Every structure is written in structure tokens, then in C-alpha cells.
Amino acid sequence: MNTKRILAAAAVAAIAAGGGVLAGHWVRGGDVSEAGEAPVAQSAVAQLWSAAVTNADGKPQSLALYKGRPMVVNFWASWCGPCVEEMPTLAKLHDEYSKKGIQFVGLGVDSGKNVKTFLQKVPVDYPIYVTGFGGADLARAFGNNAGGLPFTVVIDAKGNVRATKLGEIRADELKRTLDAL
Q: What is its main location (predicted)?
């Protein structure tokens, strides 16, 4: 377990230093088929709706209840410095954009115990779910091949991936993406 954390921390550090291909840049849409859908992204969204997640107390939850709503999905972990740094920004943006119908969701790629302890210290006003380390596979489905955190995905109301970002978000950049939904 400690080895996984050390490797994950090293990956985050490499990404923060610019080592990731996508680090620090929003990636828009994706390769679009004639039907107007990005096949890989559509598959990832389907995986999101069926993902096995729990709340911080370990009770099974379903992300499918968010179908049909524009969403910001943020993959994070309690041991990830940049993840913790961006949470206040995400909370402020959630407050602003929830009035416009945009749902923010945090997916903790961490243990339930760590997420629960973190949320007791740092309250967050948008839903936080626990994916465990399997959340890294879900993030990879959205194109996070580096496996780094934080990783943010913007999905429109039709279930299309509009943008992804590996690394800490900047409010102005995320606002531009959300205003275009």
C-alpha cells in the first residue's frame, strides 16, 4: 500500500513538474465520429454511470443519478497536494455554477477511511464519492494514461466529454469551459 502511494506521489510530482503530456492543458472534446460522438469518451461516460462508488461512510452509491446534467468530475486523493490545493477553487466554482445546473462531483481515488478523515477536516459542499484505487482505471478511460492526479473531466448534459485536464485546475480556464456548455 505504501509503495502504491509513493509511486502515485512520484507520478503527481512528475506531472506537476510538466512531465505529463497533458499536464497543465485542457484537452477539448476528442476525435469525433460521423455520429458526432467520441467513441472512447462515450465508453468512459458509460463506465462512469456504472462505476462502483461509495459515499465516505462506505454506502454504495450510483453516479447514474447525474445523467442528463452537465458535470465536472474531479479525480483526487487525500494524499495528493495539488488535489487538496484546488478543492477550495472547485468549491467556489460549484457554488457559482450549481445555480446554472452544473453538478460538481469529486471521486476519491483513495480509501474510504482517508476520504472520511479528510472531509472531517476540510468540508466540501459538493458530493464526494470513493472509488478506491480502481478510480485510476476510470480516469484512464477518460484519457488519463499517465494515471496522475488531480484529473478533471467536463461532461455536457448529453453525456459528451467536453474537456479534460490533468493537473491542478485554474478557475479562469474552467470557467471558460463551463460558460461554453
A: other
